[in-house]
Amino acid sequence: MAQPANVGELLSMLDSTMLGVRDDVTAVFKENLNSDRGPMLVNTLVDHYLETNSQPVLHILTTLQEPHDKHLLDKINEYVGKAATRLSILSLLGHVVRLQPSWKHKLSQAPLLPSLLKCLKMDTDIVVLTTGVLVLITMLPMIPQSGKQHLLDFFDIFGRLSSWCLKKPGHVTEIYLVHLHASVYALFHRLYGMYPCNFVSFLRSHYSMKENLETFEEVVKPMMEHVRIHPELVTGSKDHELDPRRWKKLETHDVVIECAKISLDPTEASYEDGYSVSHQLFTRFPPRSADVTTSPYVDTQNSYGSATSTPYSTTQLMLFSTPRHLPQTLSSPSARLLPEPLQATLWSPSSVCGMTTPPTSPGNVPSDLSHPYSKVFGTTGGKGTPLGTPATSPPPAPTCHPDDYVHISHTPQATATPPRKEERTDSARPCLHRQHHLPNDRGLEDLHRSKGSVTLSDLPVFLGDLASEEDSIEKDKEEAAISKELSEITTAEADPVVPRGGFDSPFYRDSLPGSQRKTCSAPSGTRGSIVNPEPFHSSLDKRGPDTPKQAFTPIDLPCGGADSSPAEDRDRQTSLETSILTPSPCKIPPHKGTGFGSTQPPPYDHLFEVALPKTARYFVSKKTEELLKKVKGSPEEDYVPSTSPMEVLDRLIQQGADAHSKELNKLSLPSKSVDWTHFGGSPPSDEIRTLRDQLLLLHNQLLYERFKRQQHALRNRRLLRKVIRAAALEEHNAAMKDQLKLQEKDIQIWKVSLQKEQARYSQLQEQRDTVVTQLHSQIRQLQHDREEFYNQSQELQTKLEDCRNMIAELRIELKKANNKVCHTELLLSQVSQKLSNSESVQQQMEFLNRQLLVLGEVNELYLEQLQSKHSDTTKEVEMMKAAYRKELEKNRSHVLQQNQRLDTSQKRILELESLLAKKDHLLLEQKKYLEDVKSQASGQLLAAESRYETQKRITQMFELEILDLYGRLEKDDLVQKLDEEKAEAAEAAEERLDCCNDGCSDSVAGHNEEASGHNGEAKTPRPSGIRGSYGARGAGGSSSSSELSTPEKPPSQKAGPLSSWWDTTVGEPSTSIPTVGSLPSSKSFLGMKARELFRNKSESQCDEDGMTIRSLSETLKTEQGKDSGVEAKSPLNLDGPHLSPPAPDSVGQLRIMDYNESHHEHS
Amino acid sequence: MTEDSQRNFRSVYYEKVGFRGVEEKKSLEILLKDDRLDIEKLCTFSQRFPLPSMYRALVWKVLLGILPPHHESHAQVMMYRKDQYSDILHALKVTRFISDTTPQVEVYLRMHQLESGKLPRSPSFLRQPEDEVFLAIAKAMEEMVEDNVDCYWITRCFVNQLNNKYRDSLPHLPKAFEQYLSLEDGRLLSHLRACSAVSRLPYDLWFRRCFAGCLPESSLQRVWDKVVSGSCKILLFVAVEILLTFKIKVMALNSAEKITKFLENIPQDSSDAIVSKAIDLWHKHCGTPVHSA
């Protein structure tokens, strides 16, 4: 855009016939587009395209890159709004969309989509509608999830158009409707495939209305017959269908295939995967499927495909050359390359479909009917002889041959124009690739040849195998190469029909059943470029288009009628008018006029068939059957209700083609100019317009189908990749297995070696063990030795120590010895001294001895003198002795005397001692006795006391009784007078008392009575009453102490002591005479002592013994009394006289003892 | 006892062989021949051996202090006792507390009451429980001793001994009884406890009356030998032995009333055995009394 002014020039240059210029210009545009981001250039391009329909511009537009998409879409949107430009812009949009630009996802957001939908809803032009619908159908798989917001619009469009199909509003021609129907049918498939639930619900709601019922019956229902139940209807839901996640996984071609899967229409359906059942179904119901397959739809599609391809070829070759091609191919290859023709014919049925050269000969038709079978698929049989073609096309073939041949020969050269060659160089690689494959192909072809006798039934399988083998490796590369080539070629050639790639693929498809290579080469051949390097190819090329035709013709013939059908394509331009079909005449003008340029539709028919991927396999069988049927009752077919719109369209096209070929046949087969001129003038403008429209429609349809094919191709590539991968993996697996085996072997070897090693190891270990044991034993020995040595060393050490000790001791001893030596030396010196001394002493001794001797002699002398003097002393001594003797005797006698005295005195002492002992013993006995007596007395005393106690009790009782009685008496007295009674009472009381006293005395003891008698007399100085009386009573027996005063005392006084006693014991307070009672007790001991003294003096007559005894007893009593109290006295007193008689002798002793005792006690 | 063994070395073996009491009479006679009776020896003897019945009264009287240990004074003391007895009797008769028709036992009771100064003002006064005890003992004693004076004196001293010497130990006997019963037969005791009869056993009959009226006199006097000689524990063992003997019957009885009733009127036939066993039991638990002198 650097030079905007140049744009116009450049654009004009684009259309130049010079390929080089064209390429340069396109390059310039591309550069500009890359550099510039503005909408200007795009807009101008679009405008230019709309004006001129220039192919290069279209190419540029379709390959626009990202930043320009918006401008382009905006521009398109703008033009869509305008009715005038709508159709062309839609077709432009179709081109753009089909190429699946990288920005296709933006389509949904672009304002273009709503406006397109709106246009589809509003527009009434069927051509526009059809085009728009096809564009929409193409777009749908690209924007599956984003299209959902327009879902209702889609449905509405479907509803509107489907009703159109029936109602034919206004001026719409029948032929258009066929197209429309076909597109609606496609839309139906697409919608149903993509949004089954929603779509079904829409159908349900929409066609439940009465006004739509008819439409449903007529249009929709038949459509539904070609559809199986969508699985989503069962598993999915409305929301799920619209879920973006569902669509994310699927690519565009996936969506397309998905849609194809649910189709029962063999032309549409995909037999991938698990749909074999349906496939069987088809086979099972041949008639039906046959009907379907034979449907014109197929043809139309084929024609579509061919349409795309044809223009190309037509540009270079003459329109009519194609029919001639066949014969050429048939003949020429056979002539040139022997193997090739065979193959070509072999493959012809599948690949050839489109090229119905033979049909050119109308007369052949009937004969073909029987043949085609054998030819097309049965070529196997008839293959060896390219019978089919010759047979069918004998009439034309010969005629054509020369021309065709020339043409062909010419074409390569023509095509091999310099620019192209340059192009070719660009695509050198693809060519190389192909060459690579060539050998393979040849091999295959050889195979085919050898298998020439393969039966019909086997063929498909055989073909399939071949295809799979070949395809797997080659396809990808080839495809890539081809597509590149083609695209480049197309650009170079400025072929209006964009999809070069698409071009190839149909061929390629064909090759699936048959040989791709040939089909592939076919297009290239047609272009001529490919042919160049390999003549072989060129021949193939020629054949490629041709053979299909051969196969096809039989089909076409019946449809189109014997005359018109064979030439359909080529004839279209020329002989459409003549054909029975009304539309056909109209077709030609548009073709020419619209400037699809120099496009000539005719030869594309075969491509249609090839373009349908699935049909290919079944094509032959169905076709044949269909043909058979058609032969029998072709007219009926049209009325078959189930014929799909596609078929109808197909048929329409076929018929058109037939008509055309018919026309062609009528004409001589010269150059196009003849045709052109021939047709150019005659057709009416109206028809021309309709034809042009129809052509447009067809073109659109074709483009759509091509798009579909492309998708299939994509998918196939992907599948292939998978297959390759799987194979590679398998190989890899196998390799791995081999490796594994090898490794296992290795492992085994290792194991063996391991065992060996182990054995060795065990041996070594054993050896080692033995060595170890030996070493151990050695060690033990050594240890033992060591210990022994150790012990020895220890012993030695001890010895050493001993020695040391000994040495030390010895040293000590030595010292001692030294000392001793010293000492002895000292001593020695001393001794020597002494010795000297002793010597001197000895000398002295000797001297003394001598003296002694002298003295001895002197002594002897003196003794002698003494003896002489001894006799005088003896007498004196004797006298002295005598005196001594006498004195001795005297002393002895004296001693005797003394001894005797001693004896006597000793005896005396003994006697006295014994006496003393006796006395002691006696004393003891006495003591014992006394004890005895004491205890005895105490026993008696106790008894007496108890008696006394009882007496007291008795008296108490009596007193009680008396008092009781007194009480009674007094009570009685109270009643009487007191005075008289008192005296009497006193007397009575006295008497009573006496009585009582008597009673008492009686009861106590007999001698008491006497005592009482005495008492009356002897009662002198006693100060006390009772005590005195009782005490007296004790002494009463011996002493006549008369105490007569007692009885005279008043009774109350007498009773006093009693009562006092009573008091002391019982504790009852007595008022009577406490003082009197107390006197004796207080004075008792003193009184008694005094009494004794007194009695001793006054009553001198008393016996001494008795006195002593009494006094003794008294003292004893007093002593005891201190302990036992007053009570003990009286009994003792009583006992006194009793005791006295039994022991009168021992009184003195007793006294002594008593005194002793008393002494003891007192002390 | 050393004298006994000196006198007859066989006496030890007699006992071993099973002849008990062969030498007892002799030894007792020897004991009684001593001028001054050794009371302790007599006590030990009577605890160890059953007393011959002919000396029983004498020994009892000596042990109870009715007679002094000296033979010489026996006559005189006895005379005193008789005098005392007759005096009291006379006095009671004079005061008309008793008459000739009064039963001897009651006479004893009145005499005892008189002596202890507890004579009620009228004979018609209700008797105290202690009087009942006295009556029971006197009744049993009447059977054992012929002479009235002796009987009175022994009864009196016996009761006095119970009241004075054993006053402190008698109330503890029931507890000791339970203890020994549990030692001898725990099940029986638990049965009694289960019947809550332990507290309701005839302790009064057993320990206050010394089984007077419970056991026949012939066996009773053997028990009383021990009681007189200074051990009241024998009562306990007799009671234990009674229960052990009649264990089966007692176990069969479930209510305290029935048990008490049964024990108050035990059959007389096995009393001798009961007493012998009781003495053995007593010896077993308290050891054979040995003269400590």
From TrEMBL, chain A:
Claim: Coiled coil is one of the keywords in the record: yes
Domain of life, per lineage: Eukaryota
Residue stretches in coiled coil: 726-820
Region spans: Disordered: 409-446, 486-600, 1007-1083, 1115-1163
GO BP annotations listed: negative regulation of cell population proliferation; negative regulation of TOR signaling; regulation of cell cycle
GO annotation, cellular component aspect: TSC1-TSC2 complex
Entry keywords, A to Z: Coiled coil
UniProt-listed InterPro entries: Hamartin
Polar residues bias: start-end ranges: 513-529, 1061-1083
Stored Pfam families: Hamartin
Compositionally biased tracts (Basic and acidic residues): 1007-1020, 1116-1126, 1154-1163
Protein name per its UniProtKB record: Hamartin isoform X1
Organism: Dipodomys ordii
Gene behind the chain: Tsc1
UniProtKB/TrEMBL annotation, chain B:
Self-association and partners: Component of the TSC-TBC complex (also named Rhebulator complex), composed of 2 molecules of TSC1, 2 molecules of TSC2 and 1 molecule of TBC1D7. Interacts with TSC1 (via C-terminal half of the coiled-coil domain).
Superkingdom, natural source: Eukaryota
UniProt xrefs under InterPro entries: Rab-GAP-TBC_dom (IPR000195), Rab-GAP_TBC_sf (IPR035969), TBC1D7 (IPR039842), TBC1D7_dom2 (IPR043039)
Chain's role: Non-catalytic component of the TSC-TBC complex, a multiprotein complex that acts as a negative regulator of the canonical mTORC1 complex, an evolutionarily conserved central nutrient sensor that stimulates anabolic reactions and macromolecule biosynthesis to promote cellular biomass generation and growth. The TSC-TBC complex acts as a GTPase-activating protein (GAP) for the small GTPase RHEB, a direct activator of the protein kinase activity of mTORC1.
Any single GO BP term: negative regulation of TORC1 signaling
Lineage: Eukaryota, Metazoa, Chordata, Craniata, Vertebrata
A GO molecular-function descriptor: GTPase activator activity
Keywords: Cytoplasm, Cytoplasmic vesicle, GTPase activation, Lysosome, Membrane
Coiled coil: none
Natural source organism: Dipodomys ordii (Ord's kangaroo rat)
Protein name stated in the entry: TBC1 domain family member 7
KW Membrane (keyword) present: yes
Domain Rab-GAP TBC, first and last residues per copy: 50-231
UniProt keyword annotation of Membrane present: yes
One annotated Gene Ontology cellular component of this protein: cytoplasmic vesicle
Pfam families according to UniProt: RabGAP-TBC
Main location: cytoplasm
Subcellular location: Cytoplasm, Cytosol; Cytoplasmic vesicle; Lysosome membrane
Annotated TM spans: none
